[in-house]
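In full, the data:

***
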Amino acid sequence: MSFSLVPGFNQRYPLDRDNDPLVMPDPDEPRHARPDRASLFIESCCTSLDEALSAQSRGAGRIELCTDLSVGGLTPPRDLIRAVVSSLTIPVNVLLRPSAQCAIGESGYPSENIGAHASGGGAHLWEGGFQRDTLRASAQVDFGFSAADFVYDEVELQQMIEDIAYCKSVGAAGIVIGALTPEGAIDLPTMRRLIAAARPLPVTFHRAFDVCTEDPFTALDKIIALGCTRLLSSGQAPTAWDGRNLLTLLVRRAGCRLIVMPGCGITPDNLLSLAAATHALEFHGTRLP
């Protein structure tokens, strides 16, 4: 079955110039050194219609819809996607991940070999001469998901492409995806196919980045080159606050080419401090706004 964009999509979700990574910012306009809550854009992660309606009423600017957060999020049912998109007035991005692979290798790829934990990989030094261990909260970070969980076979890939088509047909505002190779690197061929299927919807690369075994700046450059609009990341640490040093460098390196959106463990209590530390402008969480 083929789908097309829901009628009126361009009118419902006009181009947001302030968040368009292809629009160069005014060099004379400083980024917020002391951010206030009103200057920050909040994406609320929701798993039900009630959660999404509540987040919208509290001031969320966008919803990321998924299920099964205990394993990092899975594709929500189609009836839930339709209900949330049709019931809300703010944009709804849909996370697409067809299944949670077993972190002990039942996917056919031994997780200890491909980054079951964010233990590092690539060059010893990161940008600016910072060593990995100075930027990670721990050399071994258990996220509840592993690189193996983002390795997809052809059947799963085709399912994701069909799910993308459905999301477009009911008016979803964007797609949230991420694919890794069996070695834990960014899976460029798979990502290209998914992004092509998603056009013209914007694509967020999700926290598969946090268990990627490549140097994080190499991975970031690949994600930008693919044409992704956003990167959701905890800074490869247990929480975004723990990963704030790496997040700061990612924001700086991405510049206007891509929006780096911190997520994981962000609350109203630490939001402004994290914004001041990282200079990020968009934030993601289950407890926001």
Q: What stands out?
A: The first helix runs from residue 9 to 12. Residues 13-32, 101-139 have pLDDT under 50 and may be disordered. The longest strand covers residues 41-46. DSSP finds nine helices and eight strands in the chain.
